[in-house]
Amino acid sequence: MLSMDQAQILARDEYTVSPVPSLPQIPAEEMCLHCKNKSDIIDAQAETIQELKTEIQQLRDEIAILKGEKSKPVLKPSKMDKNTDLDDNPPHSNGSGVISKRPGSAKRSKTAQLIIHEIRIIKPAGPIPSGARLKSYQNFVVQGLIIKAHNICYRLACYQTNDGKCLRGQLPPELQGQHFNPTLRNYILYQHHHCHVTQPLLLEQLSEWHIDISSGQINALLSQHTEPFHTEKDEILAIGLQKSQYVTVDDTGARHAGQNGYALHVGNEDFGWFQSTDSKSRINFLQCLHAGPVTTQVNEHALTYMEEHGLSNDVCSQLQDHATPEFLSIELWRKHLEALKIDSETHVRIATEGALLGSLVEKGFNLKLAIVSDGAGQFAVLLHALCWIHAERLVHKLIPVNEGQRQAVAQVRSDIWRLYGDLKAYKRNPNANMVEQFEKRFDSVFNRKTGYQTLDNLLKRLYGKKEELLLVLQRPEIPLHTNGSETALRDLVKKRKVSGGTRSDLGRQCRDTFASLKKTCRKQGISFWRYLEDRITQTNAIPRLATLIRT
């Protein structure tokens, strides 16, 4: 029989739980009653030790999680969105349960649509016998790419007229006075902004192709003469906010000039727009929604916002009495507050948020536009909806410490999944008669007592967001999640990991501009390479992206 010391030593086993060695089986006829009792005690103690070792390991893992360390249990990403496709057919199914080939797997001619640039006829090796006749050709198409330097010397002819004037030939307008042709400039922009190739690698690559270019010239081609692109980027957000029924928003870290900053994404299925700033406050978000010059105004909408957010009546009255009908820049607005001796940090913040919102409404901002976010406070303005994936993720991240708590979390997550799946079905076939039923189901899921205090507090907090989580019942067109924004931000995250961040304000502006143009081109079904080529050569065969969004 194991002693108490031996049991404690086994319980202190640090990482793995070793299996308890099996005891030799003693025939019952050879075992006396006393021995049977001892054997039963040993078996019971072995089972107890095994249970204690398992529980100790679980506690160690939970402590490691709380400390932010790695542990044996791995919290995998939520499969909530995938597990709720209740009405969808399984992959490779034709809807009748019969498994078929995946789309696009049918045999097709791989070269039927190719443009043939050159034809080479190859005759049989050796002499062809006399009398042989050519019957046909067997085609074998080879796809290729020609990459080589192609330098042009433009000789501008100069003529002198009889009256002494000089007539000189003009360079093609697409050169824009540059010593690098549009294709090379297009390639540099495409590689850097689309393929995330860094400037040193671009320099090395072009040098290997015998292009005489310096690192400074590459930087200039990436950042200079880009004003038309910046203008088109600003148009994207203005038209997108005006014509859309909803947008999803999210932000991520983006270092600039050695300091931590943030990159904001606003978009939907028609456009994507990025803006990097030093702050992620609500004031910053409202400034970005202006999509151009930032102005402020104290009007009815501004005063309503200020009152709802707890600004004192005295301050509201003071702002109303000294309101100006003219729009003010954000700098002039702060001076206006200083003149009114409104210097409390909270008062300044709420007043500025209200004035920015009032100016947005005055400019014609679409008040029916739904803003879908992950629940971050800076996005909770106007008509706001919440992401269900992020709401469920809060429950998923809880760390239960016993079996009862684990079962409570599993039950709540299962109920949320089912409700989420039914909401997805509702989006496809809205039915006003089902709204009350969904509201009751929401109450039963989030307004419950499980006995797990942390879970109950979380459910109570989510229950307070009922209107934002169930906005889809009145607006079936809005999404239930912000996956679109999270996916869009991955490009900036990859770029951040490759290059670390931007150094100059112009470099940061170019990163945001070309990320916005690239994402919008993809959503409009336009090749980003063709778009850059069209704009650099000033062909303008591709309509402006704002026009495509509008139509």
From TrEMBL:
Highest taxon of the lineage: Bacteria
Domain Transposase IS66 central: 382-507
Region (Disordered): 74-108
Coiled coil ranges: 42-69
Keyword Iron set for record: no
Pfam families: DDE_Tnp_IS66 (PF03050)
Record's keyword annotation contains Coiled coil: yes
Classification via InterPro entries: Transposase-related (IPR052344), Transposase_IS66_central (IPR004291)
PANTHER family xrefs: BLL1576 PROTEIN
Stated name of the protein: Transposase
